[in-house]
Amino acid sequence: MKKTWLVTGGAGFIGSNFICGLLKKRNDLHIINLDALTYAGNLENLREVEGCKSYTFIKGDICDRDLVSKIFKEYDIDTVINFAAESHVDRSIDGPAVFLKTNTEGTQVLLDAALRAWKKHPDDKYSKDFLPGKKFVQISTDEVYGALRDDSKDKFEENTPLAPNSPYSASKASADMMARAYFVTFGLPVNITRCTNNYGPKQYPEKLIPLMVKTALAGGKLPVYGDGLNVRDWIHVSDHCAAIELVAEKGVPGEIYNIGSNNEHANIEIVKDILSRTGRPESLIEYVKDRPGHDRRYAIDSSKIRRELGWSPAVDFKRGLADTIDWYISEEKRNVQ
Ligand SMILES: NC(=O)c1ccc[n+]([C@@H]2O[C@H](COP(=O)([O-])OP(=O)(O)OC[C@H]3O[C@@H](n4cnc5c(N)ncnc54)[C@H](O)[C@@H]3O)[C@@H](O)[C@H]2O)c1
Questions:
Q1: Has 168 been annotated as catalytic?
Q2: Which residue segments constitute the domains of the chain, with CATH numbers given?
Q3: pTM here?
Q4: What is the pLDDT of residues 134-168, one digit of tens each?
Q5: Does residue 251 sit in helix, strand or coil?
Q6: How far apart are CA 303 and CA 312, in angstroms?
Q7: What is the CA radius of gyration of the chain?
Q8: Ligand 1 environment, Cβ below 6 A
Q9: Segment 31-84, tens digit of pLDDT
């Protein structure tokens, strides 16, 4: 019998790559995608799995308690992968409330539904017995750790204290705390993953790579925050997805896993690469006032997931970035036609 995985936010960048990748290689899963289709959700991202018998799409909000509990009643959910989120830091500065609602409260709604559906003895508040084979994976971010100094060699480890600096990262850190509490208090089998910046196809064009490709192709000025030297640790989305699948299947309940692929690059390097691949001059770069609270550097120590679960990234950064830029160039040309 197939296992049923509830994937939330599956119409977004990482969720859609996760669902399409999984359904391409596995036939033992039924995936239910619960997505509210906000501005960032796009069913086009899931074109290749439309009509597939192992895939069900439900349009809805993870904050909707009635809907979420109905889904748990209707389907025997084995695994929850919670991608659904407001994910853009700039938007969280302009309007933090929806970040708290979706990222924190929405996570609590899902945790609660899983707790009620998966407990062996629902009326015994002290019992920590759960039905076998259940897992809740909370998709978090390295941004919950705050910022590193750019002159240090430090990296975030799983036990680095949380120090989120933006409303986005604060809402994600709050969700992590809630997930942790559901493990400690109720014994719910939870994992938290904290990944670095993802790149790859299907990202909404407000994030660095798709935004810069789009702007460069249009011949516009490329806005770069501050001095452009903010450093991010980049990972290809397919490597992130492979790590999440492994955590869902083999992660030890209650554990946190950092995911990263040791590719630290300053934003300006990425922007220059985009200009060179799109054949545009560097004179298009325009340095603009820095984002308030802009974290200087993120870098993650992912040795735990490599050592304990045997994960390692497969995509070479130079090749992956070139393919990604080319993908956005061809999408942009397709849209213009
Ligand atoms: N993009 C990255 O580099 C990165 C890195 C680390 C962690 N993450 C985390 O991974 C997850 C996915 O990120 P992404 O970049 O794919 O985001 P995204 O913005 O591309 O997609 C988010 C998806 O969630 C859906 N959604 C939003 N609010 C919802 C709600 N209330 N109910 C149901 N669905 C809702 C949207 O419609 C969209 O499809 C997020 O939790 C994010 O914090 C992202």
A1: yes
A2: 3-201+235-261+298-315 (3.40.50.720)
A3: 0.96
A4: 999 999 999 999 998 877 889 999 999 999 999 99
A5: coil
A6: 9
A7: 20
A8: 8-9, 11-15, 35-38, 40-41, 61-63, 83-87, 102, 106, 139, 141, 172, 195, 197-198, 204
A9: 999 999 999 999 999 999 999 999 999 999 999 999 999 999 999 999 999 999
